[in-house]
Amino acid sequence: MTETPARRHVPSRSAADVALLVAGLSIGLLYAILIAAEPRGLALLAIVPALAVMILVLWRALSGDRRMIMLVLVASVFVIDSMFRVRSYSDKSIDFQILLKVGTWALLTMIAVSRLSATLSTILSGERLLWTILFCWIMFTTVLAPNPVYAVVAGFSMVAFFLFFASITTRFSLEDVLMALLAATVLVALVSLVVYVAVPSLGRSRVWVGNVQVISGRLAGITGNANSIGRMCCIGLIIIVLCWRRLRAFSTFLPWVLTAILGLTLLLSNSRTSMLVALVVIGVHMLVRGRNLHILVGCMAALFLAFLAIMPFSNDVLIALSRSGRADELATGTSRTLIWSVVTNLSWQRPFFGWGYGSSVFILPQYERFMGHAAPHAHNMILQLWFTTGFVGVVLFLLAIMSRFTLAVVRGERVIIALLLYVILNGLTESSAFGSIANITSVVLALAAVMREGPLNVGAPHAAEAATRRMPRLA
To answer: CA of 125: how far to CAs of 121, 450, 458, in Å?
Structure first.
């Protein structure tokens, strides 16, 4: 008997038509409001072609075009940490840049909704259910935040990527998605290098010297922050190592060229945390693979001997490594210990439910005199979760990530282990995936939470569909 081939899930034409109509009307309404609110808004007519292209891409993505779906992902990752104007961090008003980012998250969500059955079966199955509960809790705590509208937008930015990845688990391999993330990070790095040279006021980080803000030599690029561009370059370098074979299949020199671009950008950013995270994650990945083990062991031995050699001159070394010329900068983790103390005291005031997701950007700057500067977040992932979502959020996150990490070890998912390590290590001194608005670390966490490596990247209801395409082998 001849077997009937498995049918690939494609959104119905009627569903795509409705989605396109809703998108068109929404964009048109927003456009009309902008023009009505600002008489000079007629100048915005210049962006009509861009809107037309966006609608076309959305239409093709909802129709199941694989290239357009990945293009939406690349665009979403490109704008997620990008800044196209300079304003104070305390300014949380809605402008064109915010609308652009919200628009990309809406596109991701619409793609997920167009494959609703696949999305729901993924987020409600197995270990992914814990992540679903965590994100539901995050959205619940937004009502507790001092600015609920901002909090909802911040929570939605993470949920959008989570739902998007859930909707494509049976259509794309993990390597496909990593290549899209790499394309976005390289594009951000290239544009940032150009801006660093051509527009120093935008492309370089600003520091306070007394009561005056001056432009430093650290590269911030189009992300507006040296640590943000450092995070993007860090994950880009890690992805290059993870997908080395596929990159070499395009060209022998391609991985080396991309490494040079991201490496130069990372060095110019002088983001020490990102440099260290990249070295540790790549080293652990090499150790797990068992290749070039002698080189890794040699490097670790050399670092250990160097550490012993500089111990008698530790204070001088701290001064040399600090950016301010003071040893206490590194001894206190650039004031992080002061920030952690303030965050801990505030968290105990609302220990179980927290102050609301995204609340740190409004509350912590009020305690600037106790922290040395106006910190917008806790500079630690667990403390940030405790402060914003309470003990409940912390417990849910720990259960979810420990479960995912354990399963990755049992299944031998080396790439997932590397991605989770990137998030965890970044979270030691930064808020990592949970600062407020989603960043590149949030994207990586959502990806690791949802997708699996190889033939395991399926849910039972969609196994037949996934079996029709062969997953590329990861390096």
So the answer is: 6, 10, 11
